[in-house]
Batch of 4 targets.
Target 1
Amino acid sequence: MHAVTQGAPAPTRSFSLDVLDRLEQRSAQLESLSCLLYGGAGGGFNVLPDAHRENVLWLVADLASEVRALVGERGPR
């Protein structure tokens, strides 16, 4: 059995409400898009012309990048 030592508390992140709102919006949009693209519902995506499929995937990539950037933003401490 290992002894548990108590050190400094783990650092926490604090986000501004604006950042949290934007994260919530973008993550909800990504979730909805993934429902359309993944599994049985993805059939409609597969019949789109190449240009539309590329644009949809570009949108997914942009949303994911924005979420990643928002997670990297720190709010007031």
Note: The mean pLDDT is 81.
Target 2
Amino acid sequence: MSYAITPTASRALPPLPKAAADRTGRPAAELQQFVTVESLAFSIADESARADIETMCPYQYDASGRPWFDTTLVTDVDDRPYVEAALQYLILRDLIQLSPQSPNLVGFAEIQS
């Protein structure tokens, strides 16, 4: 069984230029599907890594009410590899901010849609 996934308006991608299809020899529709799948895969990975940090790390609020997650105080030792992988991924994707007060505290920028 297969399911068709239609991107929401906020995640809809612009069509690929015709020249992109010409360079690869693939039809534009096939390339557009690949770009959509790639975008969806990054979105899922981004949200999954963020959820790992948010659910496995204790947090504290700063004076402005922003939560900062302590990546060194993972309570379940079995969760440590997931937090480390999520942290590494989010740093590489530039989706996480380190606290100016403490290097073990991390925060997230608001997602722009």
Note: DSSP finds three helices and four strands in the chain.
Target 3
Amino acid sequence: MVAILVTLILALSAPVFAAEDIGTTWGFWGDSQTDGRASEASSCTSSPECIGNILGTSPTEINGVGGRSLDGSHAAYDGYAGKAELSWVHFQESGNQDLTGQATAAAFGTTFEADMTNIASDSPSAVISYETAFSFGREAEAYRDWTDYNLQLYDSVETLSGSGVTVIVADVDANIKRLQDVYTPSAVWYQSGDTNEYHYTELGNFMVAVTVINSLGFDLDALDYSGVADLDADQRAAAISIAKTIQFTAGGLFLIDDSGQMLIDVTGQTTLEVQ
């Protein structure tokens, strides 16, 4: 059983499952997870590549550097000449927190709100999305437990929404935890190098990809997965089933069962126990 932390982002209304218009000009920024380190050479060596292979559009920019901070990703984005034309920008981070602007969850929130406000201004037509961070089993280590940071992320997203800045959250952390309960952690992520190098397998990257795509409102059952046909079909189906459990809608966040029925809506920060 995994606790999924959910926060209402927008005022509740009737759920409307409509995909965001993300266009075809996409930029991804983050740490080495964005660049991709899956040991298998596949259609999902990285999550941005996997997303492109599922949706049939090659990302315009994939810019991931190992050890990069939130501010580092913003700086890399800021230096991208075509940022004003981007139709979708996506960010992630899951490594060391002991960096400028994020040594505490509160500091991370302040940095996140400033960076996302700037991004909304510099890419005015873009959908903005961000991943909750997975801790790769290192919660007991200093500056490696992302639990409080993920809670702060939701709080900051709610604050930003009050000033007209929308950031869509893909709950990667929750879904990776659920997937590793099905297939064991080693099937989903692995230690790829020294003590600080942990990365997703191709299955883990697929889980990230469908979590992000679902957060944007796409109907996962209606998509063509022929671009990722090299992945095990049963594993793909399991990841898709997990991703569909949380629906992000115009009215907020909702827990959905496998038949698409809304089980509960969320009116504040709540912990949902999901089998």
Note: The radius of gyration is 17 Å.
Target 4
Amino acid sequence: MMRFRNLAILIFICTLGIIFSGLFWLLNTNNGARWALAQVPHLSAKKISGTLMDGLKISELNWSSRSSRFTAQNLQWVLHPSHLLWGELDVVDLKIINGQLYLPKSSSKPNNLNLAWPAVPLWSRFISIHVGPTTIEKLQVWQGQKNAFRLRSGTLKNISWNHGNIHINELLSDLSTGQLKFSAQVQMEKRSLTTTGDWIESSPAHTSLRWSAAWHGLSDNTFGGPIKLLFNQKNSLSSISSLIRIAPHQILLNSMELKNPSLSTTTTGFWKIDLPENSAGDFTIYGKLNNIVVKDIPKSVPAGPLSFKLHLHGNFNHYIGAFAMNGSPGFGGIQGNIEGSSTGLQYDYTGNMLGAKLLPAKLKIDWQPLMNVQGELRLRGLQNQRFFFYCSRPVVL
């Protein structure tokens, strides 16, 4: 009995020794790192230096699957393997230099449209992943033969998945079309999203967009909250704020307020977008803007507060609807029907304007292949004295 106990202890000690020796070889030697990477299917590299414990640097990385492929001139990171003992994957100092991501060409089949808050599997709430800081120099994403995304450089302080919570801390990126700064916090179980960000366009005008949102669950299948957008172009600042409500197939914008330097008061509005089950279906858009008071209109023009109403139904290839604009009784209004496609639209309208009757007329706008606007204005009953009086008044632009 004593000999059996001693033999069992000896076997246990030898087993532990083999395990710890294997872990030491895997984490602290370059051969161990090479063996670990060799277990990743379809992964190859020209040169692998470093260890899993102290950090890896991979040159000429190439990974592929059935439909995607990723290459990088250099890829390096430092892993904290001890954190794996309590269920955390912690990667720091991640660097990607000259990366290329090839994705399959977008499918022509309709895509499902569902804005419901995503559900996460139960097991994901028991793990934690931390990556950062991260540096990327030159990254291109291809979709088929089309260059869909080009990143010149980017940094990220930290991105983490912490037992069902997502934290993105200061993503800074320099794209071919502009600069982006972005941070966000998401609590999946509470259906909560808080985000702020800035976008600066690469243009002489330095057009910029700043946004902030704080959303939460509203009911079993809806979420939303306040959202604010600040648009700056040539030192002219405009803002849009609203309460948004998102359902699986509907977006509501309530209590909308629009402020612009060309408006003397705050414009209010409401928008509703009904989405189809998939991208091949028909959508419905209904919206209105009220209390539109434009500055620098001559006092002799009885415009008053303007209001707009828009209703559209269809898809991107063909849609129909109606548009109406109304002012004070002395100014009048127009209303008519819209029919359009992905390349342009036609507006058939009529109404009353400045005491005259607008006879049925057409306005055609094409934006593909080139921008082109054609239209006609047919009036009946406009008094010449009133017409010349309105047109002779000075307008300050």
Note: DSSP finds three helices and 24 strands in the chain.
